[in-house]
Amino acid sequence: MSQASDNLVIGKIGAPHGVKGWVKINTYTNVPEGIFEYLPWILGEEQEYRVDQWRPHGKVLVAKLVNIETRDDAERIKNLDIRITAEQLPELDEGEFYWRELTGMQVVTTQGYDLGVVKDVFNTGANDVIQVKANAKDAFDQKERLLPFVLDEVVQAVDKVGRIITVDWDPGF
């Protein structure tokens, strides 16, 4: 089994549904039903669980996991994160990447100014944003910057092998 740090949270087990071990599923995947494409799930202390059955129920999804037979069993796993290993993610096409791959990458401007490293990536609704932790010797004395992750406008290149993101950005901003 992978280390917990190699695991990715893709959802959360919700409240029990009925008395036969079914649980509600809170999913973080783009397509809610897509959570069932990533099996087995890891819950709790690195315990693997397999989904026996699942179905939509109104606006939510419910699932019956193998060896979860009663409402008490379902209560025991309630609120646990649903995790998978990074190896379970699909391979991406050339030029595509997962947010987790961007974390820790060096960010430099097209003029060669080192802005720092990516601390986090998040979505604002309008576009994705990278939070860049500035270097200790930042000439502009900034602790962090938020840069829009807009390809071809701000982000000029992402070098996954070299772990460098090149941006068209004024270091003073």
Automatic annotation (TrEMBL):
Any Pfam family: PRC
One of the record's GO molecular function terms: ribosome binding
InterPro entries: PRC-brl_dom, PRC_barrel-like_sf, RimM, RimM_N, RimM_N_sf, Transl_B-barrel_sf
Domain named PRC-barrel: residues: 94-168
Gene Ontology BP annotations: ribosomal small subunit biogenesis; rRNA processing
Role of this protein: An accessory protein needed during the final step in the assembly of 30S ribosomal subunit, possibly for assembly of the head region. Essential for efficient processing of 16S rRNA. May be needed both before and after RbfA during the maturation of 16S rRNA. It has affinity for free ribosomal 30S subunits but not for 70S ribosomes.
NCBIfam families, sorted: 16S_RimM
Protein name (record): Ribosome maturation factor RimM
